TrEMBL record:
Signal sequence, start to end: none
Entry protein name: Sulfate exporter family transporter
Keyword Metal-binding: no
Predominant place of localization: membrane
Pfam family, one: Cons_hypoth698
Subcellular location(s) per record: Cell membrane
Keyword Nucleotidyltransferase: no
Amino acid sequence: MTVLRDGRPLIDHRPIHGLRRRVADLAPGVALCAAVTLVAVGLQQLEERAFAHPYVEALVIAILLGMAVRTIWEPSPIWRSGIAFSAKQLLEVAVVLLGTSISVAAIISSGPVLFAAIVGTVIVSILASFAISRLLGLATRISILIACGNSICGNSAIAAVAPVIGASSDDVASSISFTAILGVLIVLGLPLLIPLLSLGASQYGILAGLTVYAVPQVLAATVPAGLVATQVGTLVKLVRVLMLGPVVVGLSLLAPLVRERAPKPGKARKIDPFKLVPWFILGFLCLAALRSIGGVPDVAVGPITRVAGYLTVISMAALGLGVDLRVIGRVGGRVTLAVTLSLVLLLLISLGLIHLLRLG
């Protein structure tokens, strides 16, 4: 610290000025993403009032609105830093906060056979969906997004996995757009299988929990089948969502190794664990551990989860604002086919397990 002649210390204000400048740079873009989010949340609330359950969630609406804005207006540099910050850093914070939603009790209460069936379905579906996407000529990153979104929890899984594997805005938008469309269709069409396949309430609940993308969509798909189907479907879906944690951690370990070039002969590669596992994955695991030992009060879980949800929607609005629709147009047909085939495969796997293991 520098001292002036009169003995007064000279305080360095540069860090403060740098922070203010950073906030000023980010504010326009973040505010724009927040505005798109407010509109998306408002439209979801209108859906809930009209249909009791949202068929198209705010997360999907936000990315579609962002894409619509981007189509008619290209953001100038004054907006871009805030949009990029919202798409990456805010999404990473949301992933950290999702750690509080992990409940060991929910896993235990599902029973060993059903739990094993859920885990097996997710693993097989991820591998098969990835293989289908690659066979159709899709790039590795978008194939991973489709596989995880289809197999775990749709848009939320895509949003959580994207920063781990370094997916682009175009990849995320393509995956979410077509997954969202099929998500709505399966909610509307799945109840038709009850009479066609003579499914009982518990069997149908298991099927819905294993195949429908989002928790609200599971409710919408199972309410017509009765309370038992709704309870079973929700439990199965929650356990399925919990698979997101291990999958994200696994991808965080594999993705850097895949991207890195092979080490030169004679040189031993040093592995930095902090580079292999991103900070937000470590934060996710820490909060999950705290929740499991009672370090996060139950009363705080709801508000934290809602904050994570809003941050995710803001991030999706940012991704939409950065999307070039021409890129989506070039891969649209293949992405649609990949998501559709993956969903059909997931349905067949789920039905096979229900009858083979006599679940429900």
